[in-house]
Amino acid sequence: MPKIKTSRVKYPEGWELIEPTLRDLEAKMREAENDPHDGKRKCEALWPIFRISHQKSRYIYDLYYRRKEISKELYEFCLDQGYADRNLIAKWKKVGSGSFTVTIFGFYYSILWIATNDYSLESFCSQVMSASAAFAAYRHETTTSQPLASAECLSTSGRRR
Which residues fall in a coiled-coil region (predicted)? Predict the structure, then answer.
């Protein structure tokens, strides 16, 4: 007698906690895939699909790495079953990937802000430079205990003594 193959998947413990959110995101994904894209470029029609896929992967990533609310078994199950993108999560795990994303989005929205508010580029650049200097000082304080170089320890060429 041949073995009967079943397609039943054994769900790990904790699946019932994340299942409703993943089902909602899958429903949104189906809706985005079936949405008519008349008058849109091909890449513009794909943006909602990428956004929802990104959102699902970020949800799994946050549950496992940030909040630590799901087990490794459930995390691996979600990756193996295609609920999250393994390569995208690997990129988020790398050091500095979050600040790069913030920088890119911050630059994009800053350009939009200039265009909508009719500010000159020079005034905007001076504001960005002061904000980035403040951010660099904050980041330096949170990562090391050494103070930033003061004006006295910088030579005229801009190098530290």
Answer: none
Amino acid at 147: P
Rounded to whole angstroms, the Cα distance separating 44 from 47 reads 5
Q: What is the largest CA-CA distance in the chain?
A: 88
Query: Is residue 53 within 8 Å of 84, Cβ to Cβ?
Result: no
Per-residue tens of pLDDT for the chain, all 161 residues? 566 666 788 999 999 999 999 999 999 999 999 988 888 888 888 999 999 999 999 999 999 999 999 999 999 999 999 999 999 999 998 876 555 555 555 655 555 555 555 556 566 666 666 666 666 665 555 444 444 443 443 344 444 44
For residue 135, count other CB atoms closer than 10 A to its CB. Answer: 14
- Say how far apart CA 14 and CA 37 lie, in whole Å: 37
Q: How far apart are CA 91 and CA 103, in angstroms?
A: 16
List the structure tokens of 71: 């087990």
CA distance 125 to 103: 15
